[in-house]
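Data deposition worksheet. Section B asks for the primary sequence of the deposited chain exactly as it was used as input, without tags or linkers unless they were present during the calculation. Section C holds the resulting structure in token form. Section D is free text for depositor observations; keep each observation to a single sentence. Incomplete worksheets are returned to the depositor.
Section A, Depositor: J.P.
Section B:
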Amino acid sequence: MSVWGVVLAGGGGTRFGGLKQFAVLGGQTLLERVVDIAAESCDGVVVVLPAGHPWSGKGVRATGGATRAESVRSGLAVLPGDAGIVCITDAAHPLASPGLYRRVIDAVRAGADAALPGLPLTDAVKKIETVDDENLLGLAGATTPAGGSVSAQMPMAFSLPVLRRAHELIADAVEDSAMVAAAGGRVVVVPGEAINVHVTTQAELSVAQALLPLSQAWSQ
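Section C:
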């Protein structure tokens, strides 16, 4: 039973202002960096790219769909027959360490249907009822206490048969662990990494750049 990574890089980068997967961090694009890290912990990698975009790097190329779930299904469709565990990640998490990949994979090997890294929240979460896009202000609604909640990170690992079954039953969701849970699967949380920033804006890319030296030391 082999372990394969699926790296999602088919988005249009609306919040970033362009295709963020090809933004440069430490001499590599975000996508190249994530593919290299995934390849350290997986037997093979599938790279899901926008339609018509070439790829000459590591891994097998697949074409992304109109939604995140469609892009995942496109990646799953080209996995080899001996694949038993799949690790889903994206180009927006370039600082996740190889150890984090191993933790989620090991949790699935130990019997979980899915495993994700979680970083405990330290601030209360506010629901925004209305948003003024021009002034970036909102009307605050319900409050969720920080205690007992985590920020879900990438990469996430899955039993491949369980994930495929979840995609057959559920058309779309925010992320794949939610689909597995909704389909009755057992999802576990492993310790996340504070350095594992989610790059969606130019400011977050600057944060990743500042953290890069620490990330390289973390990975050793």
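Section D:
The CA atoms of residues 5 and 45 lie 5 Å apart.
The first strand starts at residue 2 and ends at 8.
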